[in-house]
Amino acid sequence: MRMPTVKHQKGDVVMGRWPGSSLYYEVEVLSFNAQSQLYTVIYKDGTELELREQDIKNAAGFYTRSRSRSRSRSRSPGRRRSSSRSPARTARRSSSRTAATENVPSARKDLKMKDMLEVRLTPLKHTAVAENSSNNKHEKKEEKQKEDNNTEVNEKAEAKVEGETETNQGRYNLRRRKDAGDEKPAATKPSAQQREPAAAVAPGAGVSTPLDFGGKIGVYFWLVFLPAWVLFVILQVNLGDPSLVNFPPPLPPLDSLWDVQALGFVLLWVFFQAVLYILPVGKLSEGMPLRSGKRLKYRTNGFFAVVVSAGAVAAAVHQGVDLTYIHTHFLQLAVATFVLSLLLSVYLYVRSRYAAPDELAMGGNSGNVLYDFFKGHELNPRVKDFDLKFFCEMRPGLIGWCLINFALALAEMKRQGLAAPSSSMILVNLFQLLYVVDGLWNEEAILTTMDLMHDGFGFMLAFGDLVWVPFTYTLQAYYLVSHPSPLSLPAVAAIVLLKVIGFYIFRKSNSEKNAFRRNPADPKLSTLKTIPTATGRSLLASGWWGVVRHPNYLGDLLMALSWSLPCGFSHLLPWYYMIYFVILLVHRDSRDMQQCRRKYGSAWEEYCQTVRYRIVPGVY
User: Fold this and answer.
1) Are the C-beta atoms of 473 and 432 separated by less than 8 Å?
2) Rounded percentage of the chain residues whose pLDDT exceeds 90
3) How confident is the model at residue 293 (pLDDT cuts 50, 70, 90)?
4) What is the DSSP string of 140-189?
5) Which residue has the higher pLDDT, 68 or 114?
6) Is-contact 344 350, C-beta < 8 A?
7) How far, in Å, CA of 267 to CA of 328, rounded?
8) CB 355 within 8 A of CB 378
């Protein structure tokens, strides 16, 4: 089959016609999709669109051809408002329209845009130059009238462009961007200058966002390091002196790493949670819009699942089931879960090879097998209505975290000869149980998070959800089984207070963000300040989100601190979660900064100047 000729190459700066209008802008070509015969181009503010070849012209001869055509065109009375302009007037009109289209105050134009593609926007409108004195005379009169009614005319012109764009959406394949980071939909109807078409993304298989985690080379490290680290901390916590700085203990015999019964328990637990997930109980929630404009539906019955799971565990204990098996076979259970996550990851990647282009994740579509396997190639893999990513994110690992903690509390009582768990163990269990139950009670909120909206489902999330969460987040409770840490009453009160403050900040900020995203017109949110962006959405810059850019991260860190404090300061291992969480949230903040800077351009720079600190006020 003969391949189509590509007239414009990647990196070319050309003039692209804004869909539904006669305005042209300088844009840079990103890619060409041979299947749809569309070019993906990017504008100065980071907006991406798909244009046909006939809507793209070479920049070099564009101005000359425009003037030549305008001189040869006669001016009809019906086109007086748009066709009779002198060259000087055209320049002034172009400058005015540029400022209106970009919707950026002149003071912000001097900002240095880091890590963002800079493409100068130069709107041009085809105009016929008046060559007789009567037209020139009329032009001066019209120009004065135009200046007197500038606001009204601009609004009408933009409304016309918007209407034309809507009628041509199918022809230009325009789609709205997905939310990123902490951006929110506009709380009020955007102005005419803001009502530009949202960004489009090319459906071709070669489209991807910048690579994370060290790129294609870095994933080799993470694929080995993550399982090795889980094995290391589990072996360390069993030692008499569990220290992160100790030399790794020798590996146990291979036959002691694997236990068929442990694998059976893991499979039974996952199957039990899957049954609870598919039961027609609870709310059927709608996810955020995908690139195709479609919204997926999710069964958000997580709170029901955790209540039923608690009842089943209580019934099992009543029937004499010894849950301390989880403590004595902790390593074997972790290995069995790792094998399950690895097999699931292989299945996810194989099935993603047959997924439609618009079902792939932008961040896991690099073309490199290992990178896409690690990051996740398909965004929302489903077996009919069973969403694999949503299920793994919220159910077996998260509820399993609470089950393991409870089993470790029983193991502490058995080993220490106690009639009840220690105060430290009770605090760790209650704090982490509250965290999980709160997440499942507000399960719908996860639909607006980075994991669900942007990250594909691959090894990174499968391993993290099934292995990392239940077998490393429980290290505080595991540590307390063999290393008691008595607490005084004032210490208990101080730790509880810290937990309450952290939980309050975490819950209030997340609720504020999710309410704003789902219904920005809510009267309860009318007092919140926003910063409009060229995408038609707004950045929330008041409330908790006006204090720091990630107040939910701040609350998370305070809660993580309250989980580690009950373990004392004798060893670093129970502080592992706090250390890891700081690294995780700083890295996630960095990813969010890069993504928002590319997407919102100068509006994001204004937001960063308004809200100076990222996570901790006055510190970072």
Assistant:
1) yes
2) 30
3) confident
4) HHHHHHHHHTHHHHHHHHHHHHHHHHHHTHHHHT--PPPP-TTEEE-SSP
5) 68
6) no
7) 18
8) yes
- The residue with tokens 């994740």 is 361
Alpha carbon separation from 478 to 254, 309, 424, 569, 589 (Å, rounded):
23, 21, 12, 16, 30
Whether 180 contacts 603, CB under 8 Å: no
334: CB partners within 8 A, 6+ apart: 230, 231, 234, 467, 471
Instruction: With CA atoms as reference, report the closest residue to 590 among 462, 450, 390, 436.
Output: 450
Identify which has the larger pLDDT, 196 or 55. Answer: 55
Residue 286 tokens, joined: 């709608």
Q: What percent of the chain has pLDDT over 70?
A: 71
Closest residue by Cα to residue 440 from 304, 311, 559? 304
CA distances to 30, 299, 588, 595 from 601, rounded to whole Å, are: 17, 36, 19, 10
Where residue 294 falls (left for φ over 0; alpha for ψ -120 to 50; beta otherwise) is beta
Is the CB of residue 243 less than 8 Å from the CB of residue 236?
yes
pLDDT digits (tens, 9 = 90+) for 407-432: 999 999 998 888 899 999 999 999 99
Collect all residues with Cβ–Cβ distance below 8 Å to 54 and sequence separation of at least 6: none
Cα separation, 395 vs 273, in Å, equals: 6
Pick 13-175's CATH classification: 2.30.30.140, 2.40.50.140, 1.20.1260.10, 3.40.710.10.
2.30.30.140
Find out whether 182 and 528 touch, Cβ atoms under 8 Å.
no
**Residues in Cβ contact with 188 at an 8 Å cutoff, skipping those fewer than 6 apart:** 520, 521
> What does pTM read for this prediction?
0.63
Cα separation, 71 vs 312, whole angstroms: 83
Q: Which of 161-175, 449-463, 519-533 shows the lowest mean pLDDT across its residues?
A: 161-175
Residue spans per domain, the chain: 13-175, 216-236+258-282+302-610
Are 371 and 411 in contact by the 8 Å Cβ rule? The answer is no
pLDDT of residue 194: 35
Alpha-carbon torsion, ordered 451, 453, 458, 463, to 10 deg = 20
Contact, 282 vs 304, CB < 8 A? yes
